[in-house]
Amino acid sequence: METNILIVDDIHPVMLEKFDEAGIAYSYQPDISRAEAEQIITSYSGLVIRSKFQVDSAFLNFAPNLRFIARAGAGMDNIDDEAAGLRHITLIPANEGNRDAVGEHMIGMLLSLMNHLNRADRQVRSGQWLREANRGYELKGRTVGLIGYGHNGMAMAKKLSGFDVKVLAYDKYRKDYSDIYATEASMEAIYQRADIISFHIPLTGETKGMIDEQYLSKFEKRIFFLLGARGGIVDVSAVLNGLDKGSILGAAFDVLPIEKFPKLAEQSWYKDLISRDNVILSPHVAGWTFESYYKLSEVAADKIIAFLR
């Protein structure tokens, strides 16, 4: 069967240009539904998706000729990797494409937390000039713990290098990964030394709900908490309890366990979360800049072309 790729999500035109140059056949259908994709996927050997729908075992039953699934994004948690593996389908992520965007966004959230920028902005706009109440913290001299040291973790460490901080990185699946930006460390060392904790790990069966009361209780210093990975790895109520106790000084969430309204507003912790001045939220956009939109599609296309060759 000749290569024929079904693209079911909005992607940057650079991917289509690269496929045209390489002579690769494709069908670009960004408005297609899952049900419609199920009806035609048997005719395709490749699938490109972002977050349109879950590519689960049931969907793959309609795709006997599929050789690969590429995601123009970071992470593959909307794809059943076990089911794909059983069918010998190669998974192609594009994590490199938005690593710089994620690093910059999370540092921006951290600086805003440490300097009370969101709260101070609201106060000035409402006629309050409260200098002492908005005294901030400096980043210099602090220890940052990165959980996960893949593309995003490494980009975060590189961008922190100009702030005169110590970066400790823990990655369960790597060895000997110390570099000029971060030092390989055990979780015990991070529990003891970290002033700031930032997560750069995928959502898997192992990491789902990992950040809970027990996990957070192990940090010996008061921390700033950053989450720009996947919302499913955190128990939000545990973070709120840490904020109440003062063991967490501030928290930034670009991702949450539920990311759609009105369901998000129905969560038991939602009103508490949005009521706090020391919490910053953004709608899962850390890795979604104008530049990363291009780079994610470019990286995915290059990897697909290399795979086919």
TrEMBL record:
Pfam families: 2-Hacid_dh (PF00389), 2-Hacid_dh_C (PF02826). Belongs to the D-isomer specific 2-hydroxyacid dehydrogenase family. InterPro entries: D-2-hydroxyacid_DH, D-isomer_2_OHA_DH_cat_dom, D-isomer_DH_CS, D-isomer_DH_NAD-bd, NAD(P)-bd_dom_sf. The keyword NAD applies. Keywords: NAD, Oxidoreductase. Residues 107-286 form the D-isomer specific 2-hydroxyacid dehydrogenase NAD-binding domain. Residues 5-308 form the D-isomer specific 2-hydroxyacid dehydrogenase catalytic domain. It comes from the Bacteria. This is NAD(P)-dependent oxidoreductase. Gene3D superfamilies: NAD(P)-binding Rossmann-like Domain.
